[in-house]
Amino acid sequence: MTNGSLGTRCVGSLIGLLTLTDILRAAAPELAADPRRDAAVAAVERVMPSVVNIATEEVVPTQSPLEDLFREFFDPYYRRRPPNTQYSLGSGVIIDEEGFVVTNFHVVNRARRVWVKLHDGREFEAEKIAGTSLTDVALLKIRAGKSDRFAAVKFAADDDLLLGETVLALGNPFGLGGSVSRGILSSKSRRPPADNEPLDILDWLQTDASINPGNSGGPLVNLRGELIGISVAVHREGQGIGFAIPIKRVGAALAELYSPEVLEKLWFGARVRPAPPLRVISVQNESPAGRAGLKPGDEILQVNGHAPRGFIDFNRQLLAAGDKRDLTLLVQRGAAQRSLSLRMVPEDTFFNAALVRKKLGVGVEELTPRAARELGLSNQRGLVITDVDRQSSAFAARLDRGMVITALDGQVRSDVVSAAKFVYGKAKGDQIEAEVVFPRQRGPYVELLRTTVTLVVR
Fold first, then answer.
1. Sign (positive/negative) of CA torsion 379, 381, 387, 391?
2. What sign does the CA torsion over 78, 80, 85, 91 have?
3. For site-directed labelling of 435, which of 202, 206, 279, 338 has its Cα 20 to 30 A away?
4. Largest CA distance in the chain
């Protein structure tokens, strides 16, 4: 082989090598990027600005199913805290740019006043909007200026969960800065949603990502940086097993907590998923929304000609109309758009004592402090029975005038509206366990007797 041919082949090989390198660079530019900046790092960078620490100056003693867990997690920290400092209760995540924060109910239930500390170090007092121990979801609102805007997390689609996918548990424990743990989704929620039953382990997502004490109430996200759950706890019995409330249940809880019914006692009668697109998840048939023709699956496009910026703004537009003027909703249903008109009404025009009598066969009224004293039931909450229909299961169960219904299916019902809303959702033939208390005179003393009876919905 001549020197000329050898040189020609070497030059050709070099040109081929350079061409291959250029092709690889064009096809995979990330090869030249920082190899540490993977999908997990990118997800953390997107979500962490929306993660907050939640603290209070005073913790109120309560009795809760999560009391032991709370004490196990936080008491060692409390014993070491210096005087005149705040209690750090856990974490939360901002879901709306106006400063609405989601966390666990058990995180804020014990707090008289609440402060949130952002990832960038800013601190604000927050208002407790609503929450429930049944779902262990609570909603807070940061008290800030009207022009202040906050980074909000993006919701994942309901049930968009892959067993074995990488998940990240984020938090801001004790206000010391961002905390991240990484693992896989070990198990999805293992039973269908059940009304009026507290959540437990069967309802939660399971992960081996560490749920540190201060991360309770913080976000569990996927590698797209989307919220798939709210961290709840670590299992005492299992090493490294953490749990989170699935985003589907978080969304359903928020739809109940932030609604015209809760905020202004106005009956709208539909629930909308609190993430874009604003899609209707349920409709009550006899409600204003149901009579107007709104259906589950409809996507809300406009309210009175204005496109809502999000779930919070949607409810704000509903409340702006109130019960004094009609609402016009523009919705997307399949390939077609529809315009629906309705007017909200005060809840007590429908959810009243007449509905309770229709469903259960008992007349009820709210137990006032004066009536409680007259019946010898001081400090008792509930609904006092005024009369009983003879053709009812209540009569068969020997309920009588002057007895007080304190709970239905284990949940306290101290006002007529909440009791009527509860029985409204029951079908004919359904059974309800009613807890009843009544006084009995024993010489100079009044004895309080308690019993539980089964009522059949008519």
1. negative
2. negative
3. 202
4. 127
Is residue 207 within 8 A of residue 165, CB to CB? The reply is no
Establish whether 5 is a catalytic residue: no
453 touches 432 (CB < 8 A)? no
**Backbone phi, psi, residue 28, to 5°:** -140, 75
Is this model's pTM higher than 0.90 or not? no
**Tokens coding 268:** 């709208």
How many CA atoms does the CB half-sphere of 79 hold within 13 Å?
A: 6
Supply φ then ψ for residue 313, to 5 degrees.
-65, -35
Q: Does residue 119 carry a catalytic annotation?
A: no
Q: 136, 158, 203, 298: which is the annotated catalytic residue? A: 136
* Residue 245: C-alpha distances to residues 136, 190, 249 (Å): 8, 12, 7
**Among the options 88, 133, 189, 216, which is catalytic?**
216
Task: Assess whether 216 carries a catalytic annotation.
Answer: yes
| CB-based burial, 226-241: b 16+ in 10 Å, e otherwise | bbbbbbbbbbeeeeeb
CB 110 within 8 A of CB 61: yes
Question: pLDDT averaged over the chain?
Answer: 86
Q: For 76-129, write each residue's pLDDT tens digit.
A: 444 454 444 457 789 999 999 999 999 999 999 888 899 999 999 999 999 999
